[in-house]
Specification:
The protein is 33% helix and 18% strand. The protein contains twelve helices and 17 strands.
């Protein structure tokens, strides 16, 4: 039986104003996409027919009169390569493509809307965003944690904002949905458009999020260094912990890119330490045969082996145990009992990966996301995100991307390739 998925895009009203932006224009008629779990996540299971999605791009008519329009941009959550590129793209397209002259930058995430934090607003112009793509991070700053959707909409009303561009991950898109609900409740004609951002690449229905290519590039450098350290000592082990709370895409893709990793550990594939099929006996076999090994682990891997703290962070995520330090200690203890002098070099490059400027591929991608977000908002689209699906840019309703986190399908060709690259046989 075919799974029914609502892909209708909400609008703030009928677009009646001729579009000043350059065409060619696209229509609102959805086009078919044949999707699988690798591209769209668990929601693609059971799809027996194509999913019809609305194309992104400029429309023939817009809802907002550009000269009377005020936009706001906010970046939320952890840092990710490409944030400045998206901000810059939104500003340039709004200003030059549509003639919007009032663009506000909200400082330090959703806190920037709340009066008690006293964060200033930044006026964004082509001049002050012209070089920001050369730097990592976000010129607007960011923060984690929920804020009152009522207070946020109060602030948007006080500033006479017509459209909000909200850039962030799963939690941020849920906040965007709550903001939209409040906007709808007040019957405001305000567009809320999301640009999905997550370095973990785990947003539902988004096959690849911006910044992911850059993250893999930088992570690959860390793996290369781990390999160099490992072969420089007898029984050398390079251990690298990468981002990936619930999804191990960075660990898996960086493993595929370099082909020096012997064991890759991800949250989606449970493993044990000892016994048949255990990591430590497999590592011993590798060291006795080749004298060195490289292990890469996602931060969320092996949490069942650790004692849960029961705590949550500012974003409401459970606080993870440190799988890297746990493995480092376990490896040393195991081989000490076998009288093998093992050298373990442990590396955590997470903050370096997060704070790097976007590479060329991500810059192109971020530019396209920003421009298409502006096209959507100006046409009066709302309660949606812009995403790239099978090399086409589309509009996705917020409820689709917030339903669950996207994870590696360990029965997929992708994961099979990872296992073939490492040669690991863990169970």
């Amino acid at each position: 039986m075919a799974q029914l998925i609502d892909t209708t895009i909400m609008t703030v009203g009928k677009a009646k104003i001729d579009n000043p932006a350059i065409g060619p224009y696209v229509g609102d008629t959805p086009i078919p996409f044949y999707l699988d779990v690798e591209h769209a996540g668990e929601d693609a299971k059971g799809l027996e027919s194509p999913l019809y999605l609305e194309q992104a791009g400029p429309r023939e008519h817009v809802y907002y009169d550009p000269g009377k329009t005020k936009a706001a941009i906010v970046t939320c959550g952890g840092l990710c390569p490409g944030l400045n590129d998206v901000i810059r793209s939104i500003v340039l397209e709004s200003y030059y493509g549509y003639g919007v002259r009032s663009i506000l930058g909200i400082r330090y995430g959703l806190e920037g809307f709340i009066p008690k934090y006293h964060h200033d607003i930044m006026e964004l112009t082509p001049r002050n965003v012209s070089e920001i793509h050369s730097f990592g991070g976000t010129i607007l700053g960011s923060s984690r944690g929920p804020q009152s959707s009522e207070e946020i909409v109060d602030a948007l009303e006080r500033m006479n904002v017509n459209m909000l561009y909200i850039i962030g991950g799963d939690g941020t898109m849920k906040a965007a949905s709550a903001i939209q609900e409040e906007v709808t409740r007040r019957r405001l004609h305000m567009a809320v458009v999301g640009i999905p951002k997550t370095i973990d690449n785990d947003i539902n229905f988004v096959p690849k999020s911006f910044g992911f290519d850059t993250a893999v590039d930088v992570a690959t450098t860390a793996l290369r260094c781990a390999h160099t350290e490992a072969i420089g000592a007898p029984y050398g082990v390079g251990l690298v912990k990468l981002m990936g709370r619930e999804s191990g895409f960075i660990a898996a893709s960086s493993t595929l890119s370099l082909n020096v990793v012997n064991f890759v550990l991800v949250p989606e594939a449970p493993f044990k330490l000892e016994g048949e099929g255990g990591l430590l006996p497999a590592l011993e076999k590798r060291l006795r045969e080749r004298s060195h090994a490289v292990i890469v682990t996602a931060e969320g891997a092996g949490q069942d082996l650790l004692t849960a703290s029961g705590k949550t962070d500012a974003s409401g995520n459970r606080v993870l145990g440190d799988i890297g330090s746990f493995l480092q200690k376990a490896i040393k203890n195991y081989f000490a009992a076998k009288d093998m002098d093992v050298t373990v070099k442990y590396n955590v490059p997470s903050y370096i990966v997060r704070s790097m400027p976007a590479n060329t591929n991500d810059r192109v991608y971020c530019g396209q996301l920003g421009r298409n977000a502006v096209h959507a908002a100006m046409a009066g689209k709302t309660n949606m995100v812009v995403a790239r699906m099978l090399d086409r840019f589309v509009h996705l309703p917020l409820h689709l991307v917030t339903r669950r986190r996207r994870k590696i399908d360990i029965t997929s060709n992708y994961w099979r390739s990872v296992i073939a690259t490492t040669g690991q046989r863990l169970s």
